[in-house]
Amino acid sequence: MRAHVDLPLVVDRLSPVALAAQVTDQLRDAMRGGALRAGERLPSSRALAALLGVSRTVVTDAYQQLYAEGWLDGRRGSGTYVADVTIFPDLVRPLEPRIPWDPTDPFEPAGPDLLDLRPGRPWVLGYDVAAWRRAWRDAGDAPPGDTPDPRGHSDLRALLADHLRRARAVPAGPENVLVTRGTGHGLDLFAASLLRPGARAGVEEPGYRVARNVLRARGAEIVPCPVDDQGVIVDELPDDLDVLYTTPAHQFPLGGRLPMARRERLLAWARRTGAVIVEDDYDAEFRYDVAPLPALYGLDPARVVLLGTLSKSLSPDVGLGWLVAAPELLARVAERRTLLGDRTSGPVQRAVTTLLRRGDLDRHLRRMRLEYARRRAAVVETLGPLVKGDTAGLHVLVELPEDAVGPLVEEARARGVLLDTTARHHHGPIRVHGLVLGYGSASLADLRRGCAVIRELARDL
Ligand SMILES: Cc1ncc(COP(=O)(O)O)c(C=O)c1O
């Protein structure tokens, strides 16, 4: 152990940052960066004050702050030492991340000159300004609440249950609904409340990377479950899953709609194996020229947890969704949520309550269905037989030969069109090659232009 170290500290009297804070920050940086090591002795406050030309209080304040943060170890009477911070490992070195770093994620922002045809974003400019303002006025009229109900506001839960009954024929009452901040959050609450560490979680392959990341971050072991153009392949599901995350209304990213017979088989599999199914119903409000199919939850409410969101029907920026489950499961999620100190914003809930109560959300959905039907028609018209998975939602699959995808994406980018590939959504070998084309957020004219670029580039294949 070295008895003493020389510290390259400086103080700037002209800086707006207090002198004690300057000393604290520099010492903390030195310890975090390894210039000061565990067990090393710091100068006495008197010596350091003299060295820096500051009052002794400046140094004692800095030391006290660092004691409080756990960086320093004081042995009374014998000096000030750098603490053995291995007991605070997350202060000095990153924990082993449960989610591996992925250089292709997050999405790069599109920038003003690029037309962004990547999936995941709705047409947010189509909202009714007056209805939106009214909703927020109503939210502001109520005083802030003091104790958030972990299940969400009761009037919102009743309205959401009603919405689910009408829009998705889901037999739910308020006792089945817990208000979340969106699908990813609902899945996180489910995993934190109901999954043991090491639980085997089936995730569609290719599939929604957020679902995979969330389950993994909560300690689940991910089991990739193959999908085809109709959705998850039930006959290939292993028997030892604790949970299966699936997108039956519009498989992400390939776009399949799980046929009725497969839904029945999937539920029979879950009943036989004891697995819980998490049904991500993210864009189910939008379907085109096809009859509705019942949600899995409606077919077997005891086996299925349904996750819904306003991210597609209104905007991800609102941050509101719902978890629908049997009351006993819901009670466990609610209880765990309180333990985690987690909640959904009260004012957001009140604004959404107004949108639902006044019928504004229904009207918005009706308008958006027309908007998206037009956009989807433009995509199909321009790209013809290349398009798959187009009967629902806000994105389609454009299947392409394997070696064509990279060059096409690059050339499209050079022409100002930003595209996403199926490769990004695979976690094992890439089985389906092509583009995942989002048509939610572009204007009709821009969308036609972007699709024309793709068609032109694909013609040369
Ligand atoms: C498969 C899937 N589920 C859910 C969502 C929405 O998630 P959230 O409600 O967390 O915004 C998306 C958004 O792109 C998605 O692609």
TrEMBL record:
One molecular function GO term is:
transaminase activity
Q: Which organism is it from?
A: Microtetraspora fusca
Residue spans making up a coiled coil are none
Q: Per the database record, which ranges form the HTH gntR-type domain? A: 17-85
Give the classification, highest ranks.
Answer: Bacteria, Bacillati, Actinomycetota, Actinomycetes, Streptosporangiales
SUPFAM superfamilies the UniProt entry points to: PLP-dependent transferases (SSF53383), Winged helix' DNA-binding domain (SSF46785)
Has the keyword Cytoplasm been applied to this entry? Answer: no
Q: Which family does it belong to?
A: In the C-terminal section; belongs to the class-I pyridoxal-phosphate-dependent aminotransferase family.
Name of the featured protein: PLP-dependent aminotransferase family protein
Which keywords does the record carry? Aminotransferase, DNA-binding, Pyridoxal phosphate, Transcription, Transcription regulation, Transferase
